[in-house]
Amino acid sequence: MQIFLASGPFRALRHKNYRYYWFGQAISVIGSWMQNMAMQWLALELTNSALLLSIVTAIEQVPVMILSLFAGAILDRKQKKRIILLTQSLLLTFAFILFLITYTHVVRYWHLVVLAFMRGLVTTFDNPARQSYMIILVGREDLPNAVGLNSMIFNLARIIGPAVASLVISTAGIEMCFLANAISFVPVIVGVFLIDARESQKEENGKSVFTEVIEGLKYVYTNKVLLRTISLVLIMGTFILNFNVLIPVYAKLALGRNETGFGLLMSSMGIGALTGAFLTAIRRKENINLNLLFKFILFVSIVYILLGLNKSYTVACMLFVLVGLLAISFNTSANALLQLLSGDDFRARVLSIYFLCNAGTTPIGNLFTGTISQKISPWAGFYISGLVTIALTIIVLITTFKKRNLEKTK
Predict the structure, then answer these.
(1) pLDDT band at 7, cuts 50/70/90?
(2) Contacts of 373 (CB under 8 A, 6+ apart)
(3) Largest Cα–Cα distance of the chain, in whole Å?
(4) Which residues, 6+ apart, have CB-to-CB distance to 222 below 8 Å?
(5) What are phi and psi of 406, to 5 degrees?
(6) Residues 22-74: pLDDT tens digits?
(7) Do the first three CATH levels of 1-197 and 207-409 match, i.e. the same topology?
(8) Ramachandran category for residue 107: left, alpha or beta (phi over 0 → left; psi -120 to 50 → alpha)
(9) Quick one: fold of 1-197?
(10) Transmembrane ranges (predicted)?
(11) Is the C-alpha dihedral spanning 396, 292, 344, 150 positive or negative?
(12) Rounded to whole angstroms, how far apart are CA atoms 44 and 57?
């Protein structure tokens, strides 16, 4: 067993502290995916509007847009463990409130908007805190493996969560998905509490948070690989990662499916995403580079165009497997590359920029795809997003090659 962990695809689990973290997350993310699907379906049932659904999903990312850079600067000064315990406890509370208002039949559309905003406010700090904590638990050498393993459980939950949620909704009621999510936070809170890892505390330097935000932005700007990686993440986050709007609209309004059909599409994407996460986990850190990111984003754009032309539910399931594989391969590889290239004093700030571009831009993307899906057709959100992504990626690609040629001629 020890030999297997030392060199196999699960080698990051040889670190006891990471095992505490990983097994807690493995349970929690299933509940989170159940809640995600249930909340999207509830919003669509309450409004029957792709645009109003896009507002609920977009509002959760508004705090990321506004506060993400400041969150990174604050986290570089703080103990990550304490932040994670606080944020996970708050997310548990929000899930339980959602259960109560749904169970008592008082839930209204505006409740979902408010709770989505509050959840987004907390995850603005939670996501970069958890991601930047992993290198403390496993070290630089096992970091790509840890990122891949974390993504594996996230995407295994993407398969299990929606499937379980659709069954729970049809048998026990949608409110039970929210209760399950609330309970699922308990193992991760216990796991983080048990971690015994020494964190290096940054000394007070008298600088304001705003000054450190500016320093973080300059740090990314002056490192060309970081800058180009972030540029691709920005494109991907805005025009591709709009699953919360695109998939339920596509399932219900384009393909005429119920919550079970929606759940199967989500699970299909989860199968591909799990495969992509596994491939990242076994990939050597030397093989994670900018060229790999270009390939992932161009291929997923082509699959989006195919989805926009497709009318078959069976074909859609197969295409969503590819979407999951390519999107998660891109995200996990970009995450690992940014962390490996960042210094310890800047890692949380670099990751906060990553989450700003990856998730903070989705309000714009959600409104973009939601409006197109409602005004043009449920298929248009896919093929237009794919075409825009290809065009913008080619611009970054051309700029990158021009820079390389200039550097070679000097």
Answers:
(1) low
(2) 50, 245, 246, 249, 253, 380, 381
(3) 70
(4) none
(5) -65, -40
(6) 888 888 999 998 998 888 888 888 888 877 887 887 788 788 778 888 887 77
(7) yes
(8) beta
(9) Growth Hormone; Chain: A; (1.20.1250)
(10) 20-44, 50-71, 83-103, 178-197, 225-250, 262-281, 288-307, 313-338, 350-368, 380-401
(11) positive
(12) 11
- The DSSP symbol for 285 reads G
- Residue 113 identity (one-letter amino acid): V
In contact, 195 and 137? CB cutoff 8 Å: yes
Q: Which amino acid is at 47?
A: T
CA–CA separation, 182 and 319 (whole Å): 32
Give the residue among 224, 228, 395, 239 at the shortest CA–CA distance from 327: 239
Task: Parse the chain into domains and list their residue ranges.
Answer: 1-197, 207-409
Beta-carbon contacts of residue 82 (< 8 Å; ≥ 6 apart) = none
- Looking at domain 207-409, its CATH class is mainly alpha
Q: Which amino acid is at 361?
A: T
Q: Return the axis-axis angle of helices 209-222 and 347-358, rounded to nearest 10°.
A: 80
Tens digit of pLDDT for each residue in 62-72? Answer: 887 788 888 87
Structure-token pair, residue 387: 């075409």
CB 380 within 8 A of CB 259: no
Return phi, psi of residue 198, to 5°: -80, 125
As a whole number of angstroms, the distance between CA 378 and CA 294 comes to: 27
Please give the C-alpha separations between residue 299 and each of 11, 284, 326, in angstroms, as whole numbers.
30, 22, 7
- Is the CB of residue 225 less than 8 Å from the CB of residue 290? yes
Distance of alpha carbon 154 from alpha carbon 149, whole angstroms:
9
User: In angstroms, rounded to a whole number, what is the distance separating the alpha carbons of residues 242 and 337?
Assistant: 23
**C-alpha of 2 from chain center:** 31
Beta strands of 145-276 (E only): which ranges? none
